[in-house]
């Protein structure tokens, strides 16, 4: 049952035990969350060019390493943990894009296509430019930034995003539309 998410209470219990120093809890947690994290990464890679040098399994391994050694995070629950995983995924992908861009010396870089249901015209944008615009959005409205992070970088549905953020699907939908419009304006302004 790889497509069935693990029970929220069990993940939360294991997260709390792990943060309190129970190493066995971490060993029990990994199999429970691995399939969900892998699914998040696979959703993102559906938008990637063929032959991308990163693969979902490599992303998940890096996310795990970052989360396992993080002293900054104390996850309150399963949703908070998946939110931290999405943020780590974003950082890994942006770091990878920045490294590739620096090697290319002026190349076009990897191109990404945002969902265009709100866009005036379909527009491909560079991941680095998207990350910069997203940072500006987070400064204005952190929750909208989290919605973009979870929907675009982690590939979560509106329902899954609502669960992670503890808000309604309708609120996620409104924030997603507003965030996409803001990012479109920011990115269109960069090309002028």
Written account of the structure:
This protein has 192 residues and is mainly alpha-helical. 69% of the residues lie in helices and 3% in strands. The protein has a two-stranded antiparallel ribbon. Helix 4 crosses helix 6 (142-153) and helix 7 packs across helix 8. It is globular, with a radius of gyration of 17 Å. Mean pLDDT is 75; it is low at 107-125.
Order of helices and strands: HHHHEEHHHH
Spans of at least 5 consecutive residues whose pLDDT stays below 50 are: 107-125
**If you average the pLDDT, what whole number results?**
75
Give me the side-by-side strand order of the main sheet: 1-2
Number of domains: 1
SS elements, strand count: 2
Work out the strand percent: under 5%
Q: Number of helical segments?
A: 8
The coarse silhouette is globular
- What proportion of the residues is helical, as a percent range? 55-70%
- Secondary structure category: mainly alpha
Radius of gyration: 17 Å
Distance, first to last CA: 49 Å
What profile does the largest beta sheet have? 2 strands, antiparallel
């Amino acid at each position: 049952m790889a497509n069935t998410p693990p029970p929220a209470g069990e993940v939360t219990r294991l997260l709390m035990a792990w943060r309190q120093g129970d190493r066995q809890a971490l060993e029990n947690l990994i199999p429970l969350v691995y399939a969900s994290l892998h699914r998040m990464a696979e959703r993102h890679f559906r938008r990637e060019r063929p032959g991308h040098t990163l693969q979902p399994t490599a992303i998940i391994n890096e996310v795990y390493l970052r989360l396992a050694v993080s002293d900054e995070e104390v996850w309150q629950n399963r949703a908070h943990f998946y939110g931290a995983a999405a943020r780590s995924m974003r950082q890994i992908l942006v770091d990878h894009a920045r490294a590739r861009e620096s090697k290319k010396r002026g190349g076009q870089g990897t191109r990404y296509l945002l969902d265009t249901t709100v866009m005036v015209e379909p527009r491909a944008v560079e991941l680095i430019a998207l990350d910069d615009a997203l940072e500006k959005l987070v400064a204005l409205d952190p929750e909208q930034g989290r919605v973009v992070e979870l929907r675009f970088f982690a590939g979560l549905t509106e329902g899954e995003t609502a669960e992670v953020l503890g808000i309604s699907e309708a609120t996620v939908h409104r924030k997603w539309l507003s965030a996409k419009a803001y990012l479109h304006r920011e990115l269109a302004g960069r090309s002028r």
